[in-house]
Amino acid sequence: MGEGGVGRSEIGGPGVPLPAMSSPAGQEAAASVRASVIIVNHNGWPHLERCLPFVLSTVRPEDEVIVVDNGSTDGSLDRLAERFPTVVRVRSPKNGGFGSGCNLGARRARGQYLVFLNPDTTVDPGWLDELLAPLSDPSVALTTPCILRMDDPARINAAGNEVHLTGLAFCRGAGMPPAALADPGDVVAVSGAAFAVRREAWDALGGLDEAFFLYVEDTDLSWRARLAGYRCRYVPHSVVHHDYAFRFGKDKFFLQERNRYLLLLKNLRWRTLLVLLPSLLLAEVVTWGFLLRYYPRRWREKVRAYLWVMENWRAIRARRRAVQAIRRARDRDLLTICVPHLAYEQTGRAAAARWAHRWLDPLFCLLYRLTLALVRW
Q: What kind of fold does domain 35-242 have according to CATH?
């Protein structure tokens, strides 16, 4: 999920109860509306002003475009009404996070398909038709486009997401030329910067989990879809450009680590987590090492993530029961398509990445093979 879509706050921090899981939209999609393109905004008017002309020029008359404003204070909604009067405007009185904004937009949407797009993007002609085409297959719940870097369209930002067996997720194909991933295929997770979903699948899965607030919610939705028996599909001929820059903003480390723990605890069986324990401990060494080496003053964010899990344990177990109730696939099926290595280079630390690949990849690969040998359920 790109960083331009929503703001950050202390929502979901230690001691703050988990919000309730989103319920289905509770309304049937209008037959005349094919797709609802939903953009969640928080104080991002410059992004919207650039994004919307591209989107509006590529959608069909039977589509709708919805902007959910997450408590902006920059006058986004008023400007939106003046510049883009055909866009449906939905106001949220507070910034409840990316998942909350998406769920709010989905409840307002009338489309047979829901398409979520970051405001810090632009789109190529034909992107929407291409993105929706695989969803005619009932086994496919989610699709994600080829997302290129806006500052360098010759390089991929994300072609879906790859996920390590410890829940650490990163952009698939980052930095590669688009031709390197020119073929469509299944992916373990879609990118929250741009993805589409069939309405019936969205309702069956309960939408995005608002407890994540920001980061990892796209992986969680994809994992839940996978466990429910659906597929996630990469669509290379649907092209989106993303104004992306890697950075560690306020609370990012806390949110990413807290949400990784929530992802694992919700989706995997207890015995799988037990088998994964050596890999999880090695991942703790890696994340602590990165934090203390490059951001030592922010060590409290990692501790906050532990405390949050402990303080919300009962609510996490309730979420876990909801996921396990709809599962149709084995943990092994999910772990098999996860990757045994980490993309250390995506942290922007080239020297450390070379060292990590040399010394840590063999350990993680060994543990990956051991895990798959043991997990048969």
A: Spore Coat Polysaccharide Biosynthesis Protein SpsA; Chain A (3.90.550)
